[in-house]
Amino acid sequence: MAKFLVVHPVGKELTVEAATPVAKAIKANVTVDAYWIRSMYVRDEGKLYCEWDAKDAESISKVINKAVPGFPTEIYKLEDELIVNSESFR
Fold first, then answer.
1. What are 51-80's pLDDT values in tens digits?
2. Which residues fall within 8 angstroms of residue 49, CB to CB, at 6 or more apart?
3. Phi/psi-derived region of residue 50, left when phi > 0, alpha when psi is between -120 and 50, beta in every other case
4. Which of 20, 29, 17, 21 is nearest to 64 (CA)?
5. 10, 72 in Cβ contact below 8 A?
6. How high is the pLDDT of residue 84?
7. φ, ψ of residue 74 in degrees (nearest 5)
8. pTM confidence score
9. Fewer C-beta neighbours within 10 Å, C or N terminus of the chain?
10. Could you give the maximum distance between any two Cα atoms of the chain, in Å?
C-alpha cells in the first residue's frame, strides 16, 4: 500500500464535536483498499491533514465521497523513498 496525505480545507473554527461525526463516518467506510491512519488539524491554516494507506487516490476518494459527500478534499501521493523518521538517522 502507498501512503497518501489528504488535505481538507475546513476553516479555522473546527471543533472536536463537529469533527466526530465526520470521523466516525469515514472510519465506518474504510476498505482494504483505503485505510485512514490519523489526522492533524492546523487551526492557523484552517486545514485538516490526514494520513492514509491506500491502493490509489481513487480508493480514498470513494471512501470519503461515500461517507461525507461533498467534503472538500485534496489528495497527494507520498513518495515512499522520501518518507523518513528520526530513527532513520540514529
1. 999 999 999 999 999 999 999 999 999 987
2. 5, 6, 7, 39, 40, 41, 42
3. beta
4. 29
5. yes
6. 81
7. -125, 130
8. 0.90
9. C
10. 44
